[in-house]
Amino acid sequence: MDSKRFEISGPALILPKLIGDSRGYFMEAFKADWFREHIEDVTFVQDNQSLSAQVGTIRGLHYQKAPFPQGKLVRCLKGAIFDVAVDIRPESDTFGQWIGATLTAEKGEQLWVPEGFAHGFCTLEPDTIVFYKVTNPYSQPHDAGLAFDDPAIGIEWPIDLSKAVLSDKDKVQPKLASLR
């Protein structure tokens, strides 16, 4: 495995080594010791998986409040997504800034989204399956989010936002200014 860091401290793109032959390929998707040494010393406590049937489905921007903030290790098992992390650490010099990466089932990339970041993704192919590990279990009372289209964040989603497929919850998320 290899990794790439971004200009915003914290998130990392993890690039697996695919070993292929006529049968297909093999890859190590997760190795705890490697992750602790190269990315961050965390323990994952829950795995989640979602299926998004339509291209242009946006899930997010989601995060959990203390005492249950979540770090997420995100991977696309089928299809492709544009995955986003937004810095919501109040003391951070990069508060409100975002990073994005395309994750595909074909290449097996993973995005590490540490605690202190809101997370969201947009599907680029139909019937996309996303799998992610989290560092704290889901807690409904601590569940929170931000508007995916907040101009103060300015995410450059790769779809026509007027055609985005959203949950009722994601249609009414607050703006970034609500965190200040």
Could you explain the architecture of this structure?
By secondary structure, the protein is mainly beta. The chain has one domain (43-179): Jelly Rolls (Sandwich), CATH 2.60.120. 6% of the residues lie in helices and 39% in strands. It has 2 helices and 13 strands; from the N terminus they run ββββαβββββββββα. The protein has helices at residues 32-38, 168-171; strands at 2-5, 12-15, 19-21, 24-26, 46-52, 58-64, 72-78, 80-87, 98-104, 110-113, 117-123, 128-134, 143-145. The strands form 3 sheets. The protein has a 6-stranded antiparallel sheet, with no helix packed on it. Strands 9-8-11-6-13 form a 5-stranded antiparallel sheet, with no helix packed on it. Strands 3-4 form a two-stranded antiparallel sheet. The longest helix is centred in the first third of the chain and has 7 residues, at 32-38. The termini are far apart. The active site is at 62 (proton acceptor), 132 (proton donor).
The SSE order reads: EEEEHEEEEEEEEEH
- Amino-to-carboxy terminus distance: 38 Å
Question: How much strand content do the residues show?
Answer: 35-45%
Q: What is the CATH fold-level name?
A: Jelly Rolls
| Tally of individual helices | 2
Rg measurement, Å: 16 Å
Q: Kindly state the number of beta strands.
A: 13
Catalogue the unreliable spans: none
